Amino acid sequence: MLGNEVVIRLGVFTGILCVMILAEAAAPRRDQRYTRRQRWPHNLLMVVVDTLVVRLLFPVAAVGAAVMANEQAWGLLNLANLPVWLSVLLGTIALDLAIYFQHRIFHAVPWLWRLHRMHHADLEFDVTTGLRFHPLEIVLSMAIKITVVVALGAPAIAVLIFEVILNATSMFNHGNVRLPQGLEQKLRRLVVTPDMHRVHHSIVPEETNSNFGFNLPWWDRFFGTYRDKPAAGHIGMVIGIEDFREPRDLRLDQMLIQPFRSTYRRP
């Protein structure tokens, strides 16, 4: 499986992206004021920039760090000598918990919010929003992830599974797609759904600071950050943040310089 890492990542990414594009066209949750032509080229180009930056700065990345930790017997799971299947399961869940807390920290610390707010500044909410992160945030996130992987001693296969699932669920839970209400309520017991995560992209600060989970929905309920729905409803809610609401802010060049712009307000 590790030998086909690139094929697996690219295949899952392409497959989920195509499925979500079709689902959004067939059953959109909200009408969009800003067109795909205005937003999608820039959001997708950001994926290219992020990928190039990560490949340049982290040649082995998190999976490589896991292989090294396993060879050196570093980390809690390597010391515990657990069955492989249990180490993979615990490693995947622990990494998801780490991402939950990382997300909360990026909202709470002012200079980290400067990096993360670009993700929230999208004026619409759809599958490409789940791919729109500033390169500096991606670099810092990768450094944090590598540190957690080594400290945890997560198996390399667990890291690959986690990263593939995280990428897939990020596209899914940012989807502008309408799910049957009964199915949506059942799904959010197991995974973060679009209706659950959309609340997190509300312009209302109390709603922005809720529903931090990307993959597993349990952490928000356990740590008291869960919010069932936006006060204005999913159709009436306003997406984004107050500071960047001009169409030009959707451009790639403006997204890249956004952390350095003087307008600065935490939610």
From TrEMBL:
Fatty acid hydroxylase domain ranges (all copies): 88-225
Pfam families: FA_hydroxylase
Keywords: Membrane, Transmembrane, Transmembrane helix
Gene Ontology terms, MF aspect: iron ion binding; oxidoreductase activity
Keyword check for Membrane: yes
Source taxon at top rank: Bacteria
Listed GO biological process terms: lipid biosynthetic process
One GO term describing the cellular component: membrane
Protein location: Membrane
Segments crossing the lipid bilayer: 6-23, 44-70, 82-101, 142-166
This protein's record includes keyword Membrane: yes
Protein name per Swiss-Prot or TrEMBL: Sterol desaturase
